[in-house]
Amino acid sequence: MAKEYVDINTLKYLLYQVHALDDLFGFERYEGHDRPSMDMFLDAIKDFADRDLFPFFKEMDDDPAGFDNGEVRVHEQVAVMMKKGGEMGVICGPLDYDQGGLQIPFMVHTAATYILDAANNHLPGYATLTLGAAELIVHFANQNLKDTYVPNMLLGAWGGTMCLTEPQAGSSLSDITTKATLTDEGYYKISGQKIFISGGDYQYVENIVHLVLARIDGAPEGTKGISLFVVPKNRVETDGSLVGNDVKTLSDFEKMGQRGFATTHLGFGDSDDCQGWLVGEANQGLKYMFLMMNDARIGVGRGAAAIAMAAYQASLQYAKERAQGRKISETGKKDPGEDQCLIIEHPDVRRMLFLQKAIAEGSLSLILLAAKYHDLQRSVSDHSEKEKYQLLLEIITPMVKTYPAEAGALAVSNGLQVLGGYGFCSDFILQQYYRDIRIFSIYEGTTGIQSQDLLGRKVLMNNGKALQLLIEEIGTTIAVASDYKDLQEWAATLKGKLTMIHEVLVYLKTFANKENYERYLSDANLFMEFLSYVVIGWNWLEMAYVAKQALDNKDAAYSEAFYESKIHTMKFYFKYELTKTNALAETLMHKEVLTQKMEKEFLV
Amino acid sequence: MAKEYVDINTLKYLLYQVHALDDLFGFERYEGHDRPSMDMFLDAIKDFADRDLFPFFKEMDDDPAGFDNGEVRVHEQVAVMMKKGGEMGVICGPLDYDQGGLQIPFMVHTAATYILDAANNHLPGYATLTLGAAELIVHFANQNLKDTYVPNMLLGAWGGTMCLTEPQAGSSLSDITTKATLTDEGYYKISGQKIFISGGDYQYVENIVHLVLARIDGAPEGTKGISLFVVPKNRVETDGSLVGNDVKTLSDFEKMGQRGFATTHLGFGDSDDCQGWLVGEANQGLKYMFLMMNDARIGVGRGAAAIAMAAYQASLQYAKERAQGRKISETGKKDPGEDQCLIIEHPDVRRMLFLQKAIAEGSLSLILLAAKYHDLQRSVSDHSEKEKYQLLLEIITPMVKTYPAEAGALAVSNGLQVLGGYGFCSDFILQQYYRDIRIFSIYEGTTGIQSQDLLGRKVLMNNGKALQLLIEEIGTTIAVASDYKDLQEWAATLKGKLTMIHEVLVYLKTFANKENYERYLSDANLFMEFLSYVVIGWNWLEMAYVAKQALDNKDAAYSEAFYESKIHTMKFYFKYELTKTNALAETLMHKEVLTQKMEKEFLV
């Protein structure tokens, strides 16, 4: 088993030096916090992760969530996750004081859950989905629903879920058919089935509060007729006692990875006795859900970024311990009389390690940046500043969700490869990370859906203002980095990519302008990849110039080698990854249209 | 469960029309065969795969090979694979008549095992490794060893393995320490341990014949002191009876994928009673092993190509049955009143399917081409022609082993993504292909090792003659394709890539010329990817022009749509995959050196 799963130095470097968490403490919302208190919180989280999450990681895969006799049984550490996590603020952390929260910056909560994800990605979801469900109630439901459900959820005594997907409605949420029928008593009767419900049932909480998308009788077709309901597993009687609410667990999906995190199939109202309470106004359900969805998507990116980090740590440790082969001498030969060298000395192994480092740390930087935009948009008072951060958050969110998942899977695969045959064996942990991370390209909107959102909505929104703001931010980093002589050529390379973005979009928009939207969006997936490379390149240039600044200032917060490793990895990313934009731009501007459906079917 | 796992039409199109199997029947070696007899053989293999392999594919994953009480227990279909496979010629097929073989072209044997691999990749290895071991004996051992072991192996009554890897010697074979001590009786006493031995033990054969690399007492250091031995699990007494030969199975490796294919840890001579017989001459073991290794590496590529094909078939079937979402209209909106469309109509799903098709069929074409070179080099009589095919086979083999494994894993991942959340669930087969294919980048020399072989040996061998021959072959295809007006621009694109290969090598060779071999080879992995894209592009251009020719000639062997699909997929490959060479060339010629070990360690 690997000894470490997260690089706390890099996490804190990104949090404090690169993304300047301290800026936030100046806002009224966060004035109750400071760096020492946040450090103490993160250190406590790391201790918790060391003790209660990481040691159970393999065990939860070997002994996965299972379904037996109508009940889902999960590993006993789920109880610890909910209870201790609840006590420590993993659930209530980002909520306002008057909502029962700790009002800590989302950046810090994100860093905390990142540590937990890296330690054992099968566990934190139980708590973070409970937070997501509680937030929906806090923001949109009436006081009675808040009083009834939220306090127990924040403590981790009750769980929470989000119920969107149905067997016939996954990517296409407009096709939801779960029914809600108003009764004279004011509640609704709910009937229907939901699938892929993470943390949908388990034995360690007294109740589970489902936030369910359903259609009120007579509601309009499509997304305009979807409402949001609180549907508890057990409803709360007037005397406070709990009685079954006709929510049945029909099965638990057996999966390739994240096997300790239950994924359930739920049936509502089989006995016509499932009661649900409307959240907010009728037919506004999808809007409410999507207002919280940005956070959920950052959460998915965070989980994938954390797995990539943990896999990097495990393969790095192996590479520093495993001797195999010899260095190539100047004659091109190897001397079998010499001792074998450590594999970390082989250039190709180093390439695989730097690739992991570039992806894992680049992803983490992007995640924390998104969290900072989230904090800023709710903290700044100036209207146009608020709009700026909202738009920046909107445009990067699809990439925040997608890049860590897609590139992270590649990083983990390289980590597995570092171990050779052992990487494929169950006694080594890389294969588990390899299986676990694969779901993140599917969770909360697949890569395809995120790509349509990026190119089809976010790039076009407010007449392209969100993209314009993003490019300005990148431009600022390029300008600052250009002040450092050693970084000038790298900054210039990134500047060239901004021109490339412009060229690609001018080309693609000719189709949108001709109302050929299907063509405009047909390579959205490649555009996602293309823009993500640039955005991660921007993050690396930022990490590099902050490191350069620290070296120049002889800032002793970290070692020289630490700062230099950031500059080195930036160069690695630019040489090995950012170059891929060239190929993608060529493909995106290629005149042949090959993926739209044609008269003859060529997929045989 | 998917209904189909292989596209027999494409297999036969490649075998007969693109790679012209019929050419071989003109050689003396293959004059006993013709197209009808080979078709009959392949059809029988397909029936066998349908009946005895494919239906047990999931079962073998659910109930994997296991180790209990010193014995490896495998699924009972292994018995069927060995027995029926043996009877049908899966083991003896490519051997000469006088060696007990059927003398069928390696192309046909490759096509046959490809069908078996696609049906259930956990099974054919038991038979093909037995063939590999038998071939080593047939080619290099004395008559007594041949008479004692080969007949039972060819029948599938006895298994066979190749024992190379040791705990301290994986990629670095020069570090093998298994000992062989000559006795007065003429045999050697063997002692040592071997790991990762595929098919190293199972209950359904009477004996297993291990071909073991070991070091004779006093042998030179490194690769020059390695000898090859026949070391049976049970030795054959003079009366023909079998007695235990002190070969112990120490464990079976539990793995992420290919779980039905036993991977064992073997101990030789724990009780000082393990007898081995030298094959050929002392200290020539690695040479013998590597003379057979080309075939083994083609076999790895074949297995990966087959899994990519099977995954493509499964996801294609799903995409043709699953309704989800709607087409985008000219207003950019979707009408929720319309029925949902099949997902195969969405451009992004089509992109994922075409990508799979391009990789799966491109890989298959390359595999069959390698098999053809193998057949030609042993059939032609002219010396320089023989050398030509030997060199062509040498230079493409690292790519034949690597591209289907690396690109195949990407293809399978796209297949999984087509299914969305279901793709991650154990009830659907994509996740099994995803796990299974991951080992192929590690088997028989990792991608890193293959890449060093390609750039470090094959590109340089005979003063670059192998590469020159390959480029001439590609040039021939470009010239022929250029005769078709519709293909001219695509042929021109491929021609540009030949120039790019030249530029990249001129740049890299400056380092080799300065005896900086480590730098020359440091990005060998990227060169492998780069050259593989071009070679697969060449295969696609070949497939396309043969299709174009068939369309022009109104050849009715296949439908018009079938031929057009080949041309369409060639264009897809050129637009979406071949473009990646641009980025790779830029990286390969980038002046920064970032992966050689430096004084300070930046991997923190």
TrEMBL record, chains A, B:
<keyword id="KW-0560">Oxidoreductase</keyword>
<comment type="similarity">
    <text>Belongs to the acyl-CoA dehydrogenase family.</text>
</comment>
<dbReference type="Pfam" id="PF00441">
    <property type="entry name" value="Acyl-CoA_dh_1"/>
</dbReference>
<feature type="domain" description="Acyl-CoA oxidase/dehydrogenase middle">
    <location>
        <begin position="162"/>
        <end position="269"/>
    </location>
</feature>
<protein>
    <submittedName>
        <fullName>Butyryl-CoA dehydrogenase</fullName>
    </submittedName>
</protein>
<feature type="domain" description="Acyl-CoA dehydrogenase/oxidase N-terminal">
    <location>
        <begin position="39"/>
        <end position="156"/>
    </location>
</feature>
<dbReference type="InterPro" id="IPR036250">
    <property type="entry name" value="AcylCo_DH-like_C"/>
</dbReference>
<keyword id="KW-0285">Flavoprotein</keyword>
<keyword id="KW-0274">FAD</keyword>
<dbReference type="InterPro" id="IPR013786">
    <property type="entry name" value="AcylCoA_DH/ox_N"/>
</dbReference>
<dbReference type="InterPro" id="IPR037069">
    <property type="entry name" value="AcylCoA_DH/ox_N_sf"/>
</dbReference>
<dbReference type="InterPro" id="IPR009075">
    <property type="entry name" value="AcylCo_DH/oxidase_C"/>
</dbReference>
<dbReference type="InterPro" id="IPR052166">
    <property type="entry name" value="Diverse_Acyl-CoA_DH"/>
</dbReference>
<dbReference type="InterPro" id="IPR006091">
    <property type="entry name" value="Acyl-CoA_Oxase/DH_mid-dom"/>
</dbReference>
<feature type="domain" description="Acyl-CoA dehydrogenase/oxidase C-terminal">
    <location>
        <begin position="342"/>
        <end position="453"/>
    </location>
</feature>
<dbReference type="InterPro" id="IPR046373">
    <property type="entry name" value="Acyl-CoA_Oxase/DH_mid-dom_sf"/>
</dbReference>
<dbReference type="GO" id="GO:0050660">
    <property type="term" value="F:flavin adenine dinucleotide binding"/>
</dbReference>
<dbReference type="Pfam" id="PF02771">
    <property type="entry name" value="Acyl-CoA_dh_N"/>
</dbReference>
<dbReference type="GO" id="GO:0016627">
    <property type="term" value="F:oxidoreductase activity, acting on the CH-CH group of donors"/>
</dbReference>
<dbReference type="InterPro" id="IPR025878">
    <property type="entry name" value="Acyl-CoA_dh-like_C_dom"/>
</dbReference>
<dbReference type="Pfam" id="PF02770">
    <property type="entry name" value="Acyl-CoA_dh_M"/>
</dbReference>
<dbReference type="InterPro" id="IPR009100">
    <property type="entry name" value="AcylCoA_DH/oxidase_NM_dom_sf"/>
</dbReference>
<feature type="domain" description="Acetyl-CoA dehydrogenase-like C-terminal">
    <location>
        <begin position="470"/>
        <end position="592"/>
    </location>
</feature>
<dbReference type="Pfam" id="PF12806">
    <property type="entry name" value="Acyl-CoA_dh_C"/>
</dbReference>
